[in-house]
Amino acid sequence: LCTDKTGTLTQNRMEIAELRLPGGEGQRPDENGAMPSPEFANVARLGMLASEQEPFDPMERAFHQLASSEARTALSNHREKGWSMQQQYALAPELLAMSQVWVKGDEPEKLVAAKGAPEAIADLCGLDAAQRVAMEASVGKMAELGLRVLAIAEARWSAEVLPETQRHFDFVYRGLVGLADPIREAVPAAVRQLQQAGIRVIMITGDYPVTASAIAAQAGIGGGNVLTGGEIARLDNHELARRIEGITVFARVMPEQKLRIVRALKAAVEVVAMTGDGVNDAPSLKSAHIGIAMGQRGTDVARAASSIVLLDDDFGSIVTAVRLGRRIYDNIRKAAAFIFAVHVPIAGL
Questions:
Q1: pLDDT band at 291; cut points 50, 70, 90
Q2: Cα 149 versus chain centre, distance
Q3: Which residues pair with 173 in a beta bridge?
Q4: What is the bridge-based pairing of β-strands 247-251 and 202-204?
Q5: Mean pLDDT estimate for the chain
Q6: Residues designated catalytic
Q7: ∠ CA 221-326-344 to the nearest 5 degrees?
Q8: Highest mean pLDDT, choosing among 102-106, 143-147, 173-177
Q9: Does the structure show a pLDDT above 90 at 126?
Q10: Bridge-based pairing state of the strands 110-116 and 97-104
Q11: pLDDT-based confidence at 7, cuts 50/70/90?
Q12: What are phi and psi of 100, to 5 degrees?
């Protein structure tokens, strides 16, 4: 059973649990959900400015919620002062970061806010070896707590014409943000029941490997190795099928790599079930022996490509379906055995 993390194993209810500055200093929001220190509040503000103005993603909602806890960092305050978003640079497979350009009235200088994977922001900011080591140390400490870690950066741009890509901005690294997404209460017990039933559970996520391992341990999916999307890209199909036997967690995985994982498991003569909810999940859901789509947050394409739709998006429902399916199969076998045991002698007589 290949399962994604966000919304399936976790509650998909993200909140910012910790922020860290480039120097390693950390701070958590107070009991009112606000950042008392101006330096940390600025990191939250930049994260909000790098998010959609009307967020749908729970992660971006968390940025807006933290920034809105103080009037000076809220989006409404920026709008009242004449700030408006001019252009967006979207997330791309080759660069896991997004930026938004903001302008204040007729002022020539523009503010560029960026957020993304720490390694992507490190590339955008051109961090040297020592700075990267310091960033990785902070990311590791936050990831060990099961936090999803994003890096924040900002730049200034005075020219009238904006560049084609966000790589042309002179970004400055501002800090890290750790987001917590609690595990669903029923998940550990459900995973344990599936494992007792002889089903191997594999988690597939786009998170940092240490974060993925920590969440997997909380869910009871442990004891195996971790394979990253970058390592998958360097393996051919035969080598991936050979290595996949001991893997329990796939981290930093791109949506298109899920299909390769399913095919590799099938090549290893496994019966594969796959959960998903997005348009990009449709090929892997279709390729798996049993595609399982989410009924509430799943797209129409994902539901159409699946064999089973979970109406409540609850991981525990998979356990219920397995139990009922095996009970039905067992009853059919008993009925067939009874029919043969009774009717063959009658036919002989």
A1: very high
A2: 11
A3: 153
A4: parallel
A5: 90
A6: 4
A7: 150
A8: 173-177
A9: yes
A10: antiparallel
A11: confident
A12: -135, 135
Give CA–CA dist 175/41, Å, rounded. Answer: 11
Separation between Cα atoms, residue 123 and residue 114, nearest integer Å: 12
Beta pairing, strands 273-276 & 247-251: unpaired
Model pTM above 0.85: no
Q: Which helix (H) or strand (E) is 304 found in, with range?
A: helix 300-305
Question: What are the CB-based long-range contacts (under 8 Å, 24+) for 92-99?
Answer: 93/254, 93/256, 95/120, 95/123, 95/124, 95/166, 95/167, 96/120, 97/121, 97/124, 97/166, 98/50, 98/166, 99/50, 99/166, 99/169
Tens of pLDDT, residue by residue over 272-285, are: 999 988 888 899 99
Give the three-class secondary structure for 311. Answer: coil
Name the nearest CA neighbour of 122 among 54, 197, 185, 208. Answer: 208
Counting every residue, how long is the chain? Answer: 349
CA–CA gap between residue 275 and residue 302 (Å, rounded): 9
For residue 170, what pLDDT is reported? 94
3-class secondary structure, 207: coil
Mean pLDDT of 141-158: 93
Dist CA 243 CA 136 (whole Å): 27
Nearest to 256 by CA among 278, 240, 238: 278
Residue 89 backbone dihedrals phi, psi, to 5 degrees:
-110, 110
Cα separation, 4 vs 87, whole angstroms: 31
| Whole-angstrom distance, CA of residue 202 vs CA of residue 27 | 33
Torsion of CA 54, 58, 63, 65, to 10 degrees: 80
> Is residue 108 pLDDT above 90, yes or no?
no
Structure confidence at residue 313 (pLDDT):
82
Q: Could you tell me which residues come within 8 angstroms of residue 226 by beta carbon, excluding any fewer than 6 positions away? A: 209, 212, 213, 247, 248, 249, 250, 251
CA quadruple 294, 298, 302, 305: dihedral positive or negative?
Answer: positive
* pLDDT at residue number 184: 87
Sheet holding 202-204, edge to edge: 225-228, 247-251, 202-204, 2-4, 273-276, 290-294, 308-310
